[in-house]
Amino acid sequence: MVGLSAGEKHFIQGGIAQDLRSDGRKRLTYRSIYVETGVIPQAHGSARVRLGATDVIASVKAELGRPSGLQPDKGKIAIFVDCSPTAAPMFEGRGGEELSTELSVALQRCLLGGKSGAGAGIDPASLVVVEGKVCWDLYIDGLVISSDGNLLDALAAAIKAALSNTGIPKVDVAAETTGDEQPEVNISDEEFLQFDTSGIPVIVTLTKVGRHYIVDATSEEESQMSSAVSISINRKGHICGLTKRGGAGLDPSIILDMISVAKHVSEQLLNKLDSEIAAAEASDEES
Amino acid sequence: MMYSDIGRLNCNVSYTTFSTPVRGQGSDHKEYSSMLLKALEGAIMLETFPKTTVDVFALVLESGGSDLPVVISCASLALADAGIRMYDLVAAVSVSCLGKNLVIDPILEEESYQDGSLILTCMPSRYEVTQLTFTGEWSTPDINEAMQLCLDACGKLGKVMRSCLKEAASGSQD
Question: Where do the Exoribonuclease phosphorolytic domain residues begin and end (chain A) (predicted)?
Fold first, then answer.
């Protein structure tokens, strides 16, 4: 927990009401985003995103597996988040578990779409190698290294960057097999397939402090929030998921207003993020 | 446990092993406990019982779709029955999007084929949303329609819950 005196609390709240926050930002301005890709050589794709003092790493690993019996034409995607004890003392031991589950669930909800796979950022059908028999299982792991608020937005950005950095090895199915036999597959270590990441949404969290709401709250500002709404929005401006945090109730009209503000903010964030990812990819290839 | 000058709320949602079509599948819903907590904490007057914890335990006996909304509405009724001070009852409703159609209070089969879903919990008399989640892809007109549908349903559900509490109270007096 952030320990703030009454004066500091008042200063933060007053600044937000006057559209000038303690670090000089306006209510709807993000901190500068810094993206680095290919940070973990062992993974198929990885990225590190820094948003002010918030620092997260996302890695993508792919393994061959069997599709589930209910959905034979779809691969599986799993998202896990781990909060490192280095990020905050309260994450020590099992302290970070609750937050980790909350973040994982929110990311799954925002990135993986509905149960039928509609609206997912990554098409699970593109992960199938042989229908009903072989598919890629995608494991996306997020790690929070340093926490200064707005973890969800940073993690979503890191996952988007990691996926655009991901190359899935090309698989050749050796021979036709009949019946229930598992087909033999040959994994190429030279040819890689890239994902289309243009459909992956970004998450914009609007934190309500007093009567106003702000984007990209620092942990000091988050300690003053009454409630927060995280909205994931894709390029088309469609909502792909929404989660509410914080206990206080909101009027339905405020939520609709927040959605339209988030849409506006997400356009800028997507453009900024895409250019950062492209720059990171370019410098990654050079080195 | 640390001293706290407001009350604490502790929620736990669990499934029986025989509640789901495949045995033991209920453990997939780890997040339900925290979602129940978030839906309820905005409605309870926590400052009225400092240094105290209120435990809410929910056990799903049979899962037939729309589990979480039912758990939330049920828990808020139980809290009211226990005499915990609340601003208002909490009513919860979910809507599934199947193709272009919106279905309210989906059953398990509908949920497994849904393209998107929305869970809305609100305090009907205060007209305040305490918890809201979306999954799947939604356009703005769809969101408006689905939210209005949920809010209307929550209003109706709230009336039913209220009359049910009144009945129970008058029944126990006799």
Answer: 30-169, 199-263
